[in-house]
Amino acid sequence: MSELLKDGWDLQHLDRACWTCNGDGGMCKDCNGTGLFQEGLFYLQRFILPDGTIKRVPVSKAEVSGKPKNEFRGLVSALLLDPQPPTVKPFQLRDYQIANAAKGVEILRRLGIVYYSMAVRTGKTLTALETARLYGAKRVLFLTKKKAIASIEGDYAQLSPGYGLTVANNESLHKVEGEFDLLIMDEAHRLGGYPKPSKGAKDIRERFSHLPMILLSGTPTPEGFSAIFFQFWVSKKSPFTEPTFYKWAGNVFKPNYVNVRQRTFAHGTVNDYSDGIKDKILAVIEPYMVSYTQEQAGFVVQ
């Protein structure tokens, strides 16, 4: 303890450890008063010296999990006296993520699009990031929902794939600048609205249709197979050659990929395009798909 004081440390400063992300590379988590934050493979405790300088000590998650604050202070004191980082196994992908990425990159090279239809918790993001690495990408754009950005950046930091990554949400696409050689589209089913493309789909097609694409979704067709058209339409490599949804779908008298039905309402008659012809659509998109379920991943599904 005398060595701590000799270095200018005071244990009361341990109570001032809780902090917020200041952009220095730490990834903030809910610390619940412990002042613990995740950076890479370690949890780091931040200490403020009396002179205002900052020091952080690496601590493994196992060492601090569930410990009360007084025990944690003692642990950190020992680490300061002997500040050797704990031995932590390097991050590794699961075997099925490695296999799916290998399968996906071959599809991407051959067809220009790969669609990962992987259930929640099976690691779509990590699989996509590994696919980009195998593909040899140098500058990747990852489009997702705003609330998922931090998680994706965390996966990227863990994997350390060696290429540049820009993560953005669709609503801020107009702020994205620079050149990219690969696009990853998270929650691709959000592009599936029909019979006209959404603004997001049009923006992606206008700016990035020339790029190879990795599409991700746990539920590619949550409301029927008619929703698949615009998900592929954003790419020039789409397997569907029809320029518009209407030509792709067909009509009441000559259906193409949709059994079009007419519905009559008080204001008149409208076409219903919701009945996509499943077998015909699957026959076209199957070569682009890599599917994986929770059961295949070994999860116990209630």
Describe the structure.
- This protein is α/β, with parallel strands linked by helices and 302 residues long.
- It has 11 helices and 11 strands.
- It has helices at residues 2-6, 61-64, 69-81, 95-111, 124-135, 149-159, 199-208, 229-233, 245-249, 278-285, 294-297; strands spanning 36-39, 42-48, 54-59, 113-118, 139-144, 164-169, 182-185, 213-217, 261-265, 268-272, 289-292.
- The strands form 3 sheets. It has a 6-stranded parallel β-sheet with strand order 6-5-7-8-4-11. It has a 3-stranded antiparallel β-sheet with strand order 1-2-3. Strands 9-10 form a two-stranded antiparallel sheet.
- Helix 6 links the parallel strand 5 and strand 6 (164-169).
- It is globular and about 65 Å long.
Task: Throw out a few tags for this protein.
three-stranded antiparallel beta sheet, 302 residues, six-stranded parallel beta sheet, single chain, disordered N terminus, 11 strands, alpha/beta
